[in-house]
Specification:
about 190 residues, alpha/beta, Rossmann fold, 6 helices, 12 strands
Length: about 190
């Protein structure tokens, strides 16, 4: 098993042991920090993700972004290539269904033909992060491929539990770091 696999397994295992109470409490803190970002004030298009398996809970944030009038996009896994597609979400209950890997994904009829190239903010999940913004995802390479092609001038924001900020990760040429990491304790500017 390589170092990335070891870290992915270690932090997925640690996350699986976290209590729902702790996840809920920390997720609210992360959501509130995100909503206070100065960059959000001028943003229109935000791409986020639907949380799963004890990740930082995002559904409250998604609802809040919709209520505040942001154009909200969520990804879906494209099986034909290692990449993500997107869809504009208007209603979390009507526009999502269980998709690949058990993740809530946009229903087929609202999926975009082309991914927008003008996202203002992209929220990125990860198993763990370094303070420099590098991350270990879940092993598919989908987000790195997506960010390389579609992040353009978007602010890339990672959500992480503070205890999952690690000293180092074996970075590869195709890895795309995030610009900011938000944890329940702090906001890390990676630049």
């Amino acid at each position: 098993m390589n170092k990335k696999e070891e870290l992915r397994k270690k932090y997925s295992n640690e996350r699986s042991k976290m209590s729902a109470v702790k996840i809920n409490k920390w997720s609210k803190k992360i959501k509130n920090k995100f909503l206070e970002l100065p960059e959000l004030k001028n943003a229109k298009k935000v791409m986020a993700y639907a949380s799963m398996r004890k990740e930082i809970e995002t559904f409250e944030l998604l609802e809040e972004l919709l209520n505040q009038g942001y154009l909200l996009y969520l990804p879906y896994t494209r099986r034909d290539v290692v990449d993500l597609g997107t869809a504009k979400i208007n209603d979390l209950d009507q526009d999502l269904k269980d998709g690949v890997f058990g993740v809530q994904e946009p229903i087929k009829r609202i999926r975009d033909e082309e991914v927008p190239d003008d996202f203002d903010i992209i929220i990125v999940p990860g198993a763990c992060f370094t303070a420099e913004g590098y991350r270990i995802g879940y092993g598919g390479g989908y987000y790195d491929s997506f960010l390389t092609k579609h992040a353009n001038n978007a602010l890339k924001v990672g959500f992480s539990y503070d205890c999952f900020i690690v000293d180092s990760i074996p970075a590869e040429a195709h890895d795309v770091p995030v610009d900011i990491i938000i944890t329940e304790k702090r906001i890390i500017n990676t630049k």
